[in-house]
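Need the bound structure for iron/sulfur cluster, inputs here:
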Amino acid sequence: MPILGIDYDKCNNCQICYNACWRYFRRDKEQNKIVFDDPNNLCDSCGRCVARCKSDAIMYENIGELLNFEEVQDPSTLISYESMHKFMSAKRSMRGYKKKKVPKADIEKVLDTMKYAPTGANIRTLKCTIISDDEKIKKLSDAVMDGIIASNNPRYTERFIKAKKQGIDTIFFNAPHVLIIHSRNPGDAMNSTIAITYGMLAAQTLGLGSCWIGLAHGVLSANKEAREKIAGIQGNIWGVMILGYPTQIYYKVPPRPDIKTKGLDDLE
Ligand SMILES: Cc1cc2nc3c(=O)[nH]c(=O)nc-3n(C[C@H](O)[C@H](O)[C@H](O)COP(=O)(O)O)c2cc1C
Ligand code: SF4
Ligand code: SF4
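Answer from helper R.:
Posting the output first, comments after.
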């Protein structure tokens, strides 16, 4: 949302935009008003100023919907810590899927949540290739399996040779959809991790299971031919996730060790 300036018919000179972003808003003492001043076009389009202006006085190039719901002012009213903690701790990596495809509208919902994940400097370059064709998924899975087998990794190689002979998909677990996040921006290595996490949690609200497939990420990053010819992707792959209706039910949340912490005991 590149900022175009201030609509002074609406502006009440509250200066909140200046507090939100003193880099590109400044006080013009002579005119006694706030001005948007970004001669070098450095504004990163984060939209913080627009979101803080109560008077809708900041003009911007429309790049999408401006969400305006009451709870946005205090998001803690939307979900309790207890609900969120339960929801997130119940998130499991699903490795069994029904044959059913996910409706486009639900995949759109997952992507719509992913787009709200933070990105460094608000640079929005992530792309997502969705592979839903079973034959293509199988080809991709075979290419990844071959890559792992060739790596002679004692953890996987023998197991994967056996699985391949038996026709078991140990890469995508017969998931109906494989989502590959990619771009040419190296900063997306980190951005993609957060976006995929957002997407997986959104998927869970829709009754969908998911799993991060680091093995596919590793092999496809190294195997240009599989990446370009099977997945049709140019550039870097930053993350691979599978999605579908789970066949597995978890009755408990497995234990996880506490994060080793320093400084916590100093707090009251
Ligand atoms: C970066 C990353 C890579 C992963 N790669 C794979 C993978 O290639 N195949 C797989 O079955 N699971 C993969 N997983 C899932 C992990 O094995 C799983 O998150 C972990 O065992 C904890 O289980 P949970 O997600 O059910 O809590 C990956 C997870 C992460 C975060
Ligand atoms: S926040 Fe909005 S109303 Fe307040 S000074 Fe800035 S543009 Fe004007
Ligand atoms: S969009 Fe972000 S960077 Fe640009 S002027 Fe507003 S707050 Fe500043």
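Comments: The chain is about 35% helix and 15% strand. The chain has a mean pLDDT of 96.
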